[in-house]
Amino acid sequence: MNANTETEPSGSLDFLKWSVIVLLLAGAVVGNYMFAEQSILVRALAVIAAIIVAGLVAMQTVKGRTAVAFAKESRTEVRKVVWPTRQEAVQTTGIVLVATLIMSLLLWGLDSVLFWVVGLITGLKVG
C-alpha cells in the first residue's frame, strides 16, 4: 500500500486540527490581554493549559506523530553519546582559551603594524 493512501483519511482532518491549534494559541494570547486585571498566576496557568491542549491536538496530526517519533529516536541517540570526562572538558576549554589568546595577540600585532604603515604612507598620526 502506498504511504499517501495510508495518510489520506487523517491528512484530510489535519487542516482542521491545525486550525484548532492556531485558534487555541491565538486565544491564549488574546485572553492574556483581555484579562489583564486578573492575577498573573491565573493568566500564566491559562496560557500553559492552552499550550498543552494545542500540543496534544498537534500530536494527533501526521506531522505531530512524526515529530514525536523523531524526538524519541533523538533521545535514544543521545543516550549512546560518550560524554567527555570533567578532566577532558577542562583541558579542551584550556586549549580553546590559549588558542584564542594567541590569535587575539597576533591580530592585535598585525593591526598595530598596519596602522603604523598606513600612518607612514598618509602622513597622518592619530594620538
Can you give keywords for this protein?
single chain, 127 residues, mainly alpha, elongated
Tell me what the structure shows.
With 127 residues, the protein is mainly α. Helix content is 84%, strand content 0%. Helix 1 runs antiparallel to helix 2 (40-58). The longest helix has 37 residues, at 86-122.
What is the secondary structure topology, with strand pairs?
Elements: H1 3-34, H2 40-58, H3 62-80, H4 86-122
Helix pairs in contact: 1-2
Question: Could you write a compact summary of the structure shown?
Answer:
The chain has about 130 residues and is an all-alpha fold.
Discrete helix count: 4
Instruction: Give the rounded overall mean pLDDT.
Output: 90
Helix content: over 70%
Question: Any idea what the shape is?
Answer: elongated
The structure class reads mainly alpha
| Pattern of helices and strands | HHHH
